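Sequence, please.
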């Protein structure tokens, strides 16, 4: 018996407060040709109970639990359990537009050689646990992605945005389970190098939760993981420019999270030292990040979060 068109893989770790709304956004899809696997990654809250509760209401939802292994291993495990032609990953705190799967089906039907697809992302701030309207959208490159599109500035933005042929994913052994961050970029780079074609759907179909607990981000680990794989794909000059761009992203993320000002300044300095011109490139985002990192102390943390949302 053949599987559905899409298998939705939801890794869940201590996501009891958001899991139900995430699953609801899947169940509201206009394209209903999917199944769902929720993989509880050793949660210490009520995530497993929440997953089992939603599964009792829908036969297409399967729930499994494992000792904590990290998000890469959790996604890989989920991918091995399902039979869909395409894997559609969704983190347990993000949400989809109701046309998400339908638009991806249409894209792949029009281009049968396409290996993976993504859409535009809305960065939605969390307010009292709920997602508010976001003011910032991800960029959408034209045509198929190049390696630089995923290594330097990740065009896909979040794994919750990725739809990929299950066979291609498994053939490449999925995500690198030793990586805590940038594992999606590392996988996409390997997919492109292997001849995979990736293209974007020019519609906003994913709401990415800008978490209220952003202070818990391990910015040093994020940079370390990114450098570890980016140095393999880029030459010395490319790497310096890419590091400046990534450090600008980290500085901006620290400002958005309301982190201590020294964190934002640290990554701004690293980006400027790597390639000053590239850090300030791109107009307003570079200038605003520079000003925020070095003059943002005059702004209350809530105002910084609002400005850089």
């Amino acid at each position: 018996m053949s599987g559905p068109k899409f298998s939705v893989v939801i890794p869940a770790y201590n996501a009891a407060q958001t899991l139900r709304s995430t699953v609801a956004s899947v169940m509201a899809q206009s394209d209903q040709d999917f199944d769902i696997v929720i993989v509880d990654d050793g949660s210490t809250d009520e995530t497993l109970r929440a997953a089992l509760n939603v599964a009792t209401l829908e036969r297409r939802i399967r729930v499994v639990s494992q000792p904590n292994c990290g998000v890469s291993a959790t996604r890989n495990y989920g991918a091995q359990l399902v039979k869909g032609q395409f894997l559609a990953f969704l983190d347990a705190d993000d949400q989809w537009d109701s046309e998400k799967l339908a638009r991806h089906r249409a894209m792949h039907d029009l281009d049968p050689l396409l290996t993976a697809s993504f859409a535009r992302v809305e960065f939605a701030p969390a307010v009292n646990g709920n997602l508010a309207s976001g003011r910032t959208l991800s960029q959408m490159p034209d045509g198929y992605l190049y390696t630089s599109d995923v290594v330097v500035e990740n065009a896909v933005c979040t794994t919750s945005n990725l739809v990929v042929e299950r066979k291609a994913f498994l053939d490449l052994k999925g995500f690198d389970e030793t990586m805590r961050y940038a594992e999606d970029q590392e996988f996409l780079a390997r997919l492109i190098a292997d001849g995979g074609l990736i293209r974007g759907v020019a519609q906003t179909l994913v709401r990415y939760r800008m978490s209220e607990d952003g202070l818990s981000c391990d910015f040093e680990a994020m940079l370390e993981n990114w450098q570890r794989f980016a140095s393999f794909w880029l030459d010395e000059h490319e790497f310096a420019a890419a590091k400046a761009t990534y450090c600008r992203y980290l500085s901006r993320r620290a400002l958005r999270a309301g982190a201590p000002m020294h964190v934002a300044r640290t990554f701004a300095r690293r980006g400027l030292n790597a390639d000053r011109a590239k850090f300030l490139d791109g107009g307003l985002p570079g200038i605003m990040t520079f000003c925020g990192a070095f003059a943002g102390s005059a702004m209350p943390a809530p105002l910084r979060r609002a400005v850089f949302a």
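The mean pLDDT is 90.
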